[in-house]
Design a protein that fits this description.
The chain has 4 helices and 9 strands; from the N terminus they run αααββββββββαβ. It has helices at 2-39, 43-46, 51-71, 176-185, and strands spanning 82-86, 91-95, 101-106, 117-120, 123-129, 135-145, 148-155, 171-174, 191-195.
Length: 196
């Protein structure tokens, strides 16, 4: 009996020893891996850009360049104090007497757009009902196309919906802050240069 019992105990002890060695080996591996991470700092901590960070920086650089081109005042858009409206880019520039841009912003074009050319602000209204039935403010009119008056305006509710192509409307919609800037910048007689 003693011999049989001792044999079982030996097997149990050997099994426990093997399990303990496996656990110790696992912890030793973890400690070694942690030490490697400490000794070899990541690219972000070492000041070297990681491949992903470099690609992200390139993307941001390209986007900044596109934004710069998009916001650049179109060439051959007149001189001096004026408003410049680019139809394809759906963007407006407010240009001061010195020829410097004081503000640029995107707009939602009207259903009816004037052909490229130079116009002048002909009338203004502080608050009216827009041709699409929406209450608007800071209306600055500058052209008439096919019997439709075209002008910049901002909806009181701040909306800039895409115009209904089936209705002939002439409201070029701006955000309210942009509408206030336009109102201050463009009194009657101010040139409005429309470019393609």
């Amino acid at each position: 009996m003693a011999r049989s019992s001792g044999g079982s105990a030996g097997v149990v002890v050997a099994g426990l020893t093997a399990a303990a060695l496996a656990v110790i080996g696992f912890f030793a591996y973890q400690a070694s891996a942690a030490q490697d991470r400490v000794e070899r700092p990541s690219a972000a901590r070492s000041g070297e850009p990681s491949p992903g960070a470099s690609r992200h920086a390139d993307d941001k650089g390209r986007q900044a360049e596109r934004d710069k081109k998009e916001k650049a005042l179109p060439a051959d858009s007149g001189e001096g104090l004026r408003v410049v409206y680019a139809l394809k880019r759906q963007r407006v520039w407010l240009v001061g007497k010195d020829g410097k841009v004081t503000r640029t912003f995107t707009v939602t074009p009207s259903a009816v757009s004037p052909p490229p050319g130079t116009y002048k602000v002909t009338s203004r209204s502080a608050h009216i009902q827009g041709s699409d039935g929406v209450p608007v403010e800071n209306v600055v009119r500058f052209a008439s196309v096919e019997g439709v008056t075209v002008g910049f305006s901002a909806a009181l509710d701040g909306s800039t919906p895409t115009p209904d192509a089936s209705r002939k409307t002439g409201g070029v919609r701006e955000k309210r802050a942009d509408g206030e800037a336009m109102w201050s910048h463009a009194p009657i007689g101010t040139p409005v240069v429309v470019v393609p």
